[in-house]
Amino acid sequence: MSKTSTKGIWKVISASSMGTMIEWYDFYIFGSLAVVISTKFFPSDNPTAAFLSTLATFAAGFVVRPFGALFFGRLGDIIGRKYTFMATLLLMGGSTFLIGCIPSYETIGFLAPILVLILRLLQGLALGGEYGGAATYVAEHAPAGEKGYWTSWIQTTATVGLFISLMVILATKSVLSAEAFDLWGWRIPFWVSIAMVGVSYLIRKNMDESPVFAKAKKEGTTSTNPLKESFGNRYNLKFVLLALFGATMGQGVVWYTGQFYAMSFMKTVMNIDSSQVDELLGIALLIGTPFFIVFGWLSDKVGRKYIMMLGMLLAIFSYRPIYKMMYDTTDISKKTEILETPRITTENKTNGSSITITEKKYTDGTSVVEKKTYLDKKDTQTNLSIVINSSDKWTLTFLVFIQVLFVTMVYGPIAAFLVEMFPTKIRYTSMSLPYHVGNGIFGGLLPAISTYFVSHAKTAGKADFYLDGLWYPIIIAGICFVIGMIYIENKNKITHL
User: Which UniProt keywords apply (predicted)?
Assistant: First the structure.
């Protein structure tokens, strides 16, 4: 492959990254608003069940990603990279916009969660086809010996998409009252996506096809049945399975622990104010994102394997100490309450229920709002919202940043790693499936599974119940680390390009 000009490769990177970033934004805006969505599209009589249902719906989008990888991967290997991920962009944008238009559960009943689930599945299918196309497209434009560096720019888009989703939510909250945001303002981040998708579509429309694929098509060497050649060929299937169980499975759980589970944990287990969580997570992501490029570049020098495996190993041994430190940082049982009479207000509802709000303050600047909803004499719901002080906020930001650093180690080099494993004619299909099974199923199910483990341990009365959710990513990453260390070669050159 001839040396690609810096100007040309930056054009490819910009166009590909913008579209992929927008698709991640669309996909993750649902997770970023999970706490709010659980009150809009699901029955409100059991908040825990509603939140778990929301996480399950969130996870459903991940579960179908492998099917999107198969469907769109096949199209990408037959008709081309460019037109396939243009189609995924439009499907994702339309689905996201429509989620913001669905009436609430109170208005249309069970039809609301059904419609959300359908659109969430369409989002998952779209993302299943997007990532493999973008990573392949960039790798096939990049100069030899620099695949890790250039594809790592695509790796930043998932985190940047999450970061922008948090910033859009914070901006919306800042211009609306809390009541307006809860009533209808939460829909704005979904609606914003349609304008972003339109801009990205116009940019991608003017892109050229991948030169490697165009050459293969001109020479008649493209695949007529990519699915059969990818998974029906025992030799190629071996590499598909190795990519899954030796790399993407562990990468997936590390990715979602460090970003989404950290966010969910702080909001639902530690009960920190939602806006504060979004803010500190956004800071951690902003500081950590450049390390995707650093580790992608480094993988061109020393190989992909050891960087990814080290990231998994550090995560395995660090997660429990990190999350214990996070929990202890804001544990109000270890703080000193200011001995004043707490401010208590009571509001009676027309349906016979009542809400009692108690505000407490602590000597370190922490404040707690406890809201008790009395539905009847036997049923009481209690919600805590902890507003943390500046010192605790920076401590948590640092602890989340450490987790993001693990993410950059396992995720930064993996696009180049996957592209290296498969020949041009079946690359889109072959690399997309293990990536989306590892991320979509093993990673995507993590928030729901881990939250369930924590809830179960809390009900059982375990003192350190909040750490039980970490066994899932630790075990999955541990299995992946062993397989990867034994069977994966430490390569940093692409033999098929």
Answer: Cell membrane, Membrane, Transmembrane, Transmembrane helix, Transport
